[in-house]
Design brief:
about 475 residues; alpha+beta; four-stranded mixed sheet; 17 strands; binds flavin-adenine dinucleotide
């Protein structure tokens, strides 16, 4: 009888041919860290984890997966918070059951010299944000994006998610940093616009289309990154407030007076208390207050006098000021440790949303009121962007009604169900709450045109039924 190779073995052989034996992980313990997300809410089984080292190898992997009708889940540093960087668990999260391969992009770490004239640099998709920051600063510039997961999060994923972070107020989200991209489409074709030309409106803007597509339209292999001036002189203020409703008027009073405003974050005492407990550190201010705003100014010369003037003009009398790097780091740690401290306390319902600035406090109140008895609701985020991170501890993480309640409140307050983390698989079924039928149909048509077999990150962003038209 002729020997027939089973389909799974054929796939693994094709993947080994594409990236080399050493870079195809098939054993359970080797795959395991790639199969569960940072929050521990999302997991699934992959036939293999592949780790290509070149754009050509990425293209070969996509062709092999297309030939075998296998889904591809692109993954960077696996710090994503909406479940779209790990294999799907099954139909319950909107995906069909078929073999999946994790395409780990962390070996694409080439980083070119900085071009000071254009203030741009070309980088592999697997370069971490932290590595880009170090590289840019050595050239007297900066990345223009920053957030807590900087040492794991990768540039390809930052672009794929149109990430935001604490500097979006000044420099925009990652979309504003993209001067060009190289990416592999579902059929293995490579599209490349890496010249970095400021003015280039020849045809549709494919880099703009891929930005924020969360691995559903193409796999980003290289990024032409637009850098920003480096501002080493910094001053930070933590301002206690009687309530969250006082935060928006504060920003409104300060912003026009403070050209060097670099970040404006908000937290509440519930969140701060959890962080203090988690880190085992004392409170930065006594007496504690219901809410706080963290304002950072950054410039080439000391911005402290301007910050102090702006606070005085806003009628702020009490603020903790940090103008040396150690005390600034201490205050930033209290803000940046929220995600970690919440995860250490349990598996939360975690929703990244955006609302107009004036709706932020009423929205947070409405969320707290709508949560089941005994739930611990912690909100914090990027005030300047109207970006709220809602975390609810207590209710069963599998109870979808909590997420739905929060997202319906977002829609009622004129907001968006995703501000910076992405829609992922976590929120795909809620996209209609803040996107019209016509918009979703257009997204489905784009998906069907670029990925007709639906192999790229199925179930993320738009449901597979929509994607199939
Ligand atoms: C402590 C903490 C703080 C955070 N703070 C912020 C914050 O302030 N702002 C913010 O925006 N995010 C924040 N995040 C979320 C997360 O870090 C970002 O979404 C980041 O962009 C994910 O990078 P990653 O390399 O870990 O991507 P992954 O988790 O590996 O993947 C994320 C998504 O991108 C896709 N993807 C990955 N690589 C590629 C590629 N090369 N091509 C196409 N698609 C790809 C994946 O399929 C997935 O859909 C935070 C996360 C943590 C854990």
């Amino acid at each position: 009888m002729p020997h027939v190779t089973p389909p799974a073995t054929q796939l693994i052989e094709a993947l080994r041919g594409a990236v080399g034996d050493a870079h195809v992980l098939v054993e359970d313990d080797m795959r395991a860290p790639f199969e569960i997300d940072w929050t521990r809410r999302w997991s699934g089984r992959a036939a293999a984890v592949v780790q290509p080292g070149t754009t050509e190898a990425v293209a070969a992997v996509l062709r092999a997966c297309g030939d075998h009708d296998v889904a591809v889940v692109p993954q960077g540093g696996n710090t994503g918070l909406v479940g779209a960087g790990v294999p799907r668990g099954g139909p319950a999260d909107g995906s069909e059951r078929r073999e999946q391969v994790v395409l780990s992009m962390t070996r694409l770490v080439g980083l070119d010299d900085v071009d000071a004239a254009s203030m741009q640099v070309s980088a592999g998709a697997g370069v971490t944000l932290g590595a880009l920051q170090v590289h840019a600063r050595a050239a007297g510039l900066d990345a223009g994006v920053d957030f807590g997961a900087r040492d794991s999060a990768t540039l390809g994923a930052l672009v794929a998610c149109d990430a935001g972070g604490i500097r979006a107020l000044r420099h925009g989200t990652v979309r504003a940093r993209v001067a060009g991209l190289e990416a592999v489409l579902a059929d293995g074709q490579v599209v490349r616009r890496m010249s970095g030309l400021l003015k280039d409106n020849a045809g549709y803007d494919l880099p703009a289309l891929l930005t924020g597509s969360e691995g559903t339209l193409g796999v980003i292999t290289r990024v032409r990154w637009r850098l920003v001036p480096r501002h080493d002189a910094r001053a930070l203020a933590l301002i206690p407030l009687p309530g969250l409703a006082d935060a928006a008027p504060l920003l409104r009073a300060v912003r026009p007076r403070l050209a060097s405003l670099d970040a404006c974050e908000f937290l509440t005492d519930d969140g701060l208390g959890l962080v203090l407990e988690h880190l085992g550190v004392p409170a930065p201010v006594e007496p504690r207050a219901p809410a706080y705003v963290l304002l950072e100014a950054a410039a080439t010369a000391d911005p402290l006098p301007d910050l102090a003037d702006a606070l005085e003009a806003a009628g702020i009398e009490d603020a903790v000021i940090a103008d040396d790097s150690a005390s600034r780091e201490r205050l930033w740690r209290l803000r940046e440790s929220h995600t970690e401290a919440i995860s250490a306390a349990g598996v939360p319902h975690k929703l990244d949303v955006g609302v107009p600035l004036d709706a932020l406090a009423p929205f947070c109140d409405a969320v707290r009121d709508a949560m089941p008895a005994g739930a611990r609701t912690i909100v914090f985020g990027h005030l300047g962007d109207g970006n709220v991170h809602v975390n609810v501890l207590g209710p069963d993480p599998a109870d979808g009604s909590v997420d739905e309640t929060v997202l319906r409140l977002v829609a009622e307050h004129g907001g968006t169900i995703s501000a910076e983390h992405g829609v992922g698989v976590a929120k795909a079924r809620f996209l209609h709450l803040t996107r019209s039928d016509a918009e979703i149909a257009a997204m489905g048509a784009i998906k069907a045109a670029l990925d007709p077999r639906g192999i790229l990150n199925p179930g993320a962003v738009i449901s597979e039924r929509t994607a199939a038209g």
